[in-house]
Amino acid sequence: MNDLSPPSLSRGCRDEPILKQRGQHEVFCGLTGIIWLHRKMQDAFFLVIGSRTCAHLLQSAAGVMIFAEPRFGTAILEETDLAGLADAQTELDRVATELLARRPDIKQLFLVGSCPSEVIKLDLARAAERLTEKHAPSVRVLNFSGSGIETTFTQGEDACLASMVPVLAKTDARQLMLVGALPDVVEEQAVSLLNQMGIDGVKVLPAPRADEDLGVGSGTVFALTQPFLGDTHAALERRGARHLSAPFPFGEEGTTAWLRAIADEFGIDAETFDRVTAAPRARARKAIAQASEALRDKSVFFFPDSQLEIPLARFLTRECGMNAIEVAAPFIHKGIVGPDLDMLAQGPTLAEGQDVDLQLERCRDARPDLTVCGLGLANPLEAEGLATKWAIELVFTPVHFYEQAGDLAGLFSRPMRRAEMLKLDPASSREINLGGAGAGPRGLPA
């Protein structure tokens, strides 16, 4: 195999000091994860126990037509619930029973906590146990928190998957499990590459249906596809599974290193590995080179938002030629992102958590060529002349593995090119913004 060994720790960032930020932070609500999870689990329903604001957020973010029947909804907490004048548990039982009677296709029902339900200390774990006893075995009821009080938006997926692990069947069979929700086409590409190497029977969490033959035990090794799955990682290890630590599959280099970790675990020889990966690796390198021309020698600054920041910084600096000024993430779990830190050259400030005012000062002082941040900060920074990329778009868009590597680089290069066009022709900024931004594959601006 070609040498993909990371740089020595003396040149990597794993042991670099981390700036701990514990001030005011800007985060998107964890309920947002439902928007992609409800598409992955075809027999599941996500019932948010929240306010009308929660319902409006989900409806707006998902863009669901008024006559559609999506696999999520909101049980509205009324004033009587919030004031303790009504028995919220009884009302929840009634709503869930009516829902299951109307939708017999539901086999997994997730009760999703929100800020309002957590403020009034509504015990959704007890409700899930009670409803499971009532509706088993046809329906499995689980609960997790999607509250945005102290979490970032990708933790909704982490909490959901972590809630599923304890109820998985026990098996000691030797197996590989890919963990993390991916667009179907991307997941199929990953499984196909592994199958071509001779690794069959690959399991995926979350599975599309509750009746999938999905178990976990001492023979299970798992590879994370998303870096924000800390709770799921811990839950799987408690069940006896073993984590395959590797850089995340962003770009040609990260994807190859991720696949190599799995291939080495299953004894795949170098010749087979190279035969399977050579063509897609070449396509990925070519696509990245074309898409990243506008990124060479440019600087990038990451605000903490999605927890993808460290793997993406590794991709942008090593494969796209950018210079990272600051790489901030909501949480830094070295057991998960350690391999990416090993490959990220020293230089950028590493920050965990957020003190938004102080970080904005550092960003304004640095004047980066590109700032990756949340929606709430992007427009003000754009008004100050800084090119930005919405962090949430990197979660909603297919960006993993070889065939999407060029698209990933393009997500960062488009705002750079747009900024250059605006400098050349500021009089036509309105036309350039509308034409240059475009729309991503799920309707988000590019």
From TrEMBL:
Gene Ontology MF terms: 4 iron, 4 sulfur cluster binding; ATP binding; metal ion binding; oxidoreductase activity, acting on iron-sulfur proteins as donors; oxidoreductase activity, acting on the CH-CH group of donors, iron-sulfur protein as acceptor
Pfam families listed in its UniProt record: Oxidored_nitro (PF00148)
One GO term (biological process): photosynthesis, dark reaction
Cofactor binding remark: Binds 1 [4Fe-4S] cluster per heterodimer. The cluster is bound at the heterodimer interface by residues from both subunits.
Gene3D superfamilies reported for this sequence: Nitrogenase molybdenum iron protein domain
Domain Nitrogenase/oxidoreductase component stretches: 29-385
Residues binding [4Fe-4S] cluster: 29, 54, 115
Biological or metabolic pathway of the protein: Porphyrin-containing compound metabolism; bacteriochlorophyll biosynthesis (light-independent)
EC number(s) stated in the UniProt entry for this protein: 1.3.7.7
Reactions it catalyzes: chlorophyllide a + oxidized 2[4Fe-4S]-[ferredoxin] + 2 ADP + 2 phosphate = protochlorophyllide a + reduced 2[4Fe-4S]-[ferredoxin] + 2 ATP + 2 H2O
Protein's job: Component of the dark-operative protochlorophyllide reductase (DPOR) that uses Mg-ATP and reduced ferredoxin to reduce ring D of protochlorophyllide (Pchlide) to form chlorophyllide a (Chlide). This reaction is light-independent. The NB-protein (BchN-BchB) is the catalytic component of the complex.
Family stated for the protein in its record: Belongs to the BchN/ChlN family.
Quaternary structure, from the entry: Protochlorophyllide reductase is composed of three subunits; BchL, BchN and BchB. Forms a heterotetramer of two BchB and two BchN subunits.
The protein's name: Light-independent protochlorophyllide reductase subunit N
Organism: Ascidiaceihabitans donghaensis
Gene that produces this protein: bchN
